Amino acid sequence: MINEEMKEFMLNDSVERFIKYVQVETTSDENSSSNPSTKEQLELGKILVQELESLGLKEVELDEFGYVYATLPASEGYENVEPIGLIAHMDTSPAVSGKNVKPIVHKNYDGGTITFRKDPELTLSKEDSKELEEYVGLDIITASGDTLLGADDKAGVAEIMTALSTWQKYPSLKHGEIKICFTPDEEVGRGTEKINKEKLPKYCYTFDGGEMGELEIECFDAWSVKLTFIGLSVHPGYAKNKMINAVDVACRFFSQIPEYETPERTEKREGFYHLHNLSGNAEIAEGKMIIRDFDVEKNEKRIDYIKSLISAYKKRYPGLKIELEYKHSYENMKVYLEPHKHIVDHAEKAIERAGLEVKYTAIRGGTDGARLSAQGIPTPNIFAGGLLFHSRKEYIPTLAIQKAVEVIIYLAEEWSKKPN
Ligand SMILES: [Zn+2]
After folding, report:
1. Which of 211-215, 269-273, 368-372 is least confident?
2. What InterPro entries does the record tag this protein with (predicted)?
């Protein structure tokens, strides 16, 4: 059982680590092709390696691609418990500066509007994030107004580190073997690109994003689509009945995509088409789309609709060629988690034991966990506690950091109860 003294230790230790980690710049770069995408991420990796070694972990390593791996051996008598992996990402989103982050702890939040030292115009209130209502009386951490905070996902990193330090300080808390992996470049979609699956156990959890209590076992089913329109360019003065204006046809074509099925018109479990690039001239034009939904069948219907539009347009503009390329980018991870129900059950139980209500949410995007799940390592996501990510208003209540640590401790206990 976790007692009050342990909780206080968890809170102090995790907040201290969090404040330290967010001050290390780890912005990833979508335009870089190196691994990791930015050298700065290695600096946090080096700090974590030192800390993991001082906590007595084994096989501690920062590899050439910027991944940190470590192993915590099982408590005595718990060697037969199925090992689990705990994963968090070290990088922060390139959408907002992560340089010189100056975290501020707002003690005893009074429910009012929070202001920022470095930008007097910027405010944070319940209008921005209704969850703030639940955090009155708690300590809240923000950045200073000129950067993001980086709770996504340094909160996850700090929570895992504090769980390790809690196990070291309180050996009465038992656990099986725990594998740690901190990844670079999650925010640029490359967090598992160079991951060494040999160093991961059969089952993992990511601790990333999300308010207290969140458990994510679903993500989008995702497709990318490219359409190439090949027309016929003719001198515009003499083009009657001859020219097939590829870019003009492409504009008409994409206007047939249902307007109410776009990112700006959908939420929750609704899917969409998203035309994100259109270019061309009379001779040739190209449009790129992504298609997203939680149900693969609904996405397949969208592809069928595009195919039917293509045949209609070919009839309407004789001589026009339309080439269609599409590919399945990633699948809803639910498909991979369903056969291993106990992974989700243990997470649910651990969240409840930490005194929180479990909030199942479906991720309107992909995650490293989703990619790992597809690669044979089922990996649901558990909250790290932050809100308003990728923004200068990003914040986290310190209680959420402590609660996530409790969840990790209980999670290990749940796995120990039911060895497979
Ligand atoms: Zn994240």
Report:
1. 368-372
2. ArgE/DapE_CS, Bact_exopeptidase_dim_dom, Peptidase_M20, Peptidase_M20_dimer, Peptidase_M20B
Distance separating alpha carbons of residues 334 and 210, to the nearest angstrom: 18
Query: How many whole angstroms from 396 Cα to the centroid of ligand 1?
Result: 13
Number of domains making up the chain = 2
Residue 419 has pLDDT above 70, yes or no: no
**Structural domain range at position 381:** 4-219+332-417
* CATH number of the domain within which 304 lies: 3.30.70.360
Q: What is the pLDDT of residue 1?
A: 87
> Residue 410 Cα, ligand 1 centroid: separation in angstroms?
22
Q: Taking Cα atoms as reference points, which of 35, 48, 408, 58 lies closest to residue 192?
A: 35
Report field, pTM of the whole predicted structure over 0.85: yes
Neighbours of ion ligand 1 (CB under 5 A): 152-153, 208-209
Catalytic annotation on 128?
no
Measured CA to CA, the distance from residue 386 to residue 157 in angstroms comes to 12
The residues pairing with 325 across neighbouring beta strands, listed in sequence order, are 226
CA distance to 180, 254, 401, per residue, from 257 (Å): 45, 5, 43
Residue 414's nearest CA partner among 351, 358, 362 is 351
What CATH number does residue 160 fall under? 3.40.630.10
Among 287, 312, 329, identify where a domain stops: 329
Q: What distance separates the 2 farthest-apart alpha carbons in the chain?
A: 87
Residue 17 near residue 63 (C-beta atoms within 8 A): no
pLDDT at 33: 93
Query: Among 13, 25, 40, 91, which one carries the catalytic annotation?
Result: 91
Do 112 and 138 share a domain, yes or no?
yes
Report how far residue 145's alpha carbon sits from residue 153's, in angstroms, rounded to the nearest whole number. Answer: 18
Give residue 205 CA to ligand 1 midpoint distance, Å: 13
Rounded mean pLDDT of 36-48? 97
CA 318 to chain centre: 46
